[in-house]
Amino acid sequence: MYYILFTLLFLKFSFKKEDVKEQIARAVIGIFISFIVFYLFNKDRSLSLLISILWIPAFFQLLFTSVCQSIKKQKISNFYYLAATLFILFSFCYNLYPYITGSSKKLAQMVPVKESSDIVSKIDAEHVIIISPETAYYKMQKLLGTLPNPSIYRVGELGITMTKDGACYVAPIEVDGFFRALSNKEIPGVMYISAERNEEARIINVPVGYADSFVFGRDLKRHLRSYKPDKVLFQANAELDDDGNPYYVGSYGHYAYGRKGAVIDGVLLLSFKDGKVTDYSKEKVPSWVDEVYPSDVSEDYNKFFGTLKDGLWNKLITKKGVHIPTKWGSMAEVKGLEVNSSEVIGVIDGVKKLKWFTDHTNTSDTSTTMTGYTLMDMRSGNMIYYKTPGYINGKGAMNVVSKALGANSMNWTPSQPIFYNLFGTEAWVVPVINKTDGAFIKLGIVSAQSSYVVLEDSKDTAIESFKNAIAYGLINSSTGANANSLKAEEKSITGKVLRINPVTENGNTVFYLRLEGVSTIFMVNKSTGVDITLTRDGDNVEIRYLDIKGNNVVSTTYFKNNSIR
Fold it and tell me: Which ranges does the record mark as transmembrane (predicted)?
């Protein structure tokens, strides 16, 4: 129906016999453009889309009528030209809404974001993501060679998913090229690799007849479009369920303001096993699905929130309070790598759920400090903006690691910095990879506040070195020397508070306390346990701390006040 409706907009409003040839020519052009819009570009069949592209037939009407008028020397009324011009302006204004109405703040207001000055909850060191997309792609490329006829295939777009074994990169095995897409009826399955450990990639051999690399009716998005013709389709990514079965997860929805402001309505799940598509509303999506809100929606939400809170003119001119996602990228040249986002990164939070992360900075291209960072829940879309003025941003962390590499930076490069709270200290975890193929080389951890860096060959040694640096108080040093020679054991203690005293250091409040009968002084901050802010002399408390022989003042990793009920 939309093919016909859109084609009618190209026709001349005439029923005269002498206009039949002209009408046929107009219809052919209208059908051709309809094919481009609705088939090749696979756009939604909605009134919203028709309004947004109304300028195309309106412009065509002006152009075609002007040409025919000069050839046939027919006089066209000014009203006709005025009407066509108004349709063009109306369509343009609809596409620019709400910017041109002065209501661009609405885009920022629709983002479900809360601002916080707290420190993000601590992450279990075991679940820190250390593998970059380049490394995952490098290992998947090696695995392609084990397939029958490997030259037919290529590694598809990398996404991230949570499994019972932790976070993993997943990519469909795509066919390589148009003619191979015509001669192959299915792809062999997906590849996956741990994002938390330096392991080899694996294949899940479950063939499916739909893929991004296929054409016509077997194109993935075109197949999903048949289930939701009137909805806006967002990214469709490969994920694994709790049993390791692969699915395509394709979110759909609508726009809140013209063609701006994505709203997620639901998800289409396509099973690799049987090709069945199941439609779920947003509230009823199975618990194993991670990307209900895909990365392209998260990117838009971050931009709206950071730039449009005070309107479009403020964004363009005064820039008061404007902050944008940090632009960074590795110097690796890995050909063929496709990732589902270049602006937001999937990370694991303190309760082992995947969130979209990106740090924000000011609008200067050379800035290496952040104003804060966001964590967006992939399932609910809820976002928290953590204010961290003065901390180095992802680009700054990469610069610190690159400097620590010294002469090796000719062949190695830092990649994909991710922000974590490790042992109560906010830090950047920065993988170091080979520039040419993306192979994992080392792991750097950089203190976001002081730029102190440790650089080790593995995740375990890097985290151990960083923990020891905290325990010895080296984390506030700017020397950048490794702490791998230091050893700190985590211990637990319970007792009654003898004395407690808060001290503000570099804008952060640290509580120093002693327990009855214990000479050690414990350093506690809010991220270790919020109970510390309500603790008084005489309270019974439970503490986990990093013990170093001969150190009288120690850092804590856990605090609980058992006197608070």
Answer: 24-41, 47-67, 79-97
Rounded to a whole number, what is the largest CA-CA distance in the chain?
Answer: 106
Tell the residue number behind the tokens 């820039």, with chain if given.
319
- Distance of alpha carbon 272 from alpha carbon 250, whole angstroms: 13
Mean pLDDT of 474-495: 65
Question: Does the structure show a pLDDT above 70 at 341?
Answer: yes
Name 454's bridge partners.
445
For the chain, give every domain's residue range.
1-101, 130-299, 489-561
Q: DSSP letter at 62?
A: H
H-type alpha helices, 243-379: 295-307, 312-313
User: What does residue 181 show for φ and ψ, rounded to 5 degrees?
Assistant: -65, -30
Residue 554, exposed/middle/buried by CB under 10 A (0-12, 13-18, 19+)?
buried
Report yes or no: 363 and 325 within 8 Å, Cβ to Cβ: no
Displacement of CA 370 from its chain's centroid (Å): 18
Instruction: Answer yes or no: pTM beyond 0.90.
Output: no
- φ, ψ at 131 (rounded to 5°): -95, 125
**CB count in 10 Å sphere of residue 66:** 12
Each residue of 456-467: pLDDT tens digit? 998 988 988 888
> Half-sphere exposure of residue 521, counting CA atoms within 13 Å on the CB side?
11
- Residue 494 vs residues 541, 542, 545, 547: alpha-carbon distances, Å: 6, 4, 11, 15
3-class SS at 217? helix
Structure-block tokens of residue 523: 């350093």
Residue 365 has pLDDT above 90, yes or no: no
- Give the H/E segment covering residue 518: none
Structure-block tokens of residue 226: 């048949």
- What is the phi/psi pair of residue 143, to 5°? -70, -25
For 27, other C-beta atoms within 10 Å of its C-beta total 14
Q: How many CA atoms lie within 13 A of 538 on its CB side?
A: 0
Number of Cβ atoms within 10 Å of the Cβ of 439: 17
Which CATH superfamily does the domain covering 489-561 fall into?
A: Nucleic acid-binding proteins (2.40.50.140)
φ/ψ region of 196 (left if φ > 0, alpha if ψ in -120 to 50, else beta) reads alpha
> What's the pLDDT at 476?
65
Q: Is 406 helix (H, G, I), strand (E, B) or coil?
A: helix
Question: How many Cβ atoms from other residues are within 10 Å of residue 77's Cβ?
Answer: 8
